[in-house]
Write a structure and sequence with these properties.
Largest sheet: 3 strands, antiparallel
Strand order of the largest sheet: 1-2-3
Structural class: alpha+beta
Order of helices and strands: EEEHH
Number of strands: 3
Strand content: 35-45%
Helix content: 25-40%
Radius of gyration: 15 Å
Amino acid sequence: MAAKTIGESMSRNFMNENNEIIASSSVSVGLNTSGSLTITFQDAQKLKDSQTIADDLKTFIDDVLTLSAKYVE
């Protein structure tokens, strides 16, 4: 019988100051399995012009690390 994988996934959209999606992400983490993190950038110019994307991505990475820490043996 196969062992059941225990884990979580999370998705997030990143918006600019005009409420346009400029990036999206998905994460999966788990116990006894490999995890993944994908960030897709939608529009390079809007990304460059964003005042908040750097802080938003830093917060996101912190959230991912917190999520993955739950599954460290």
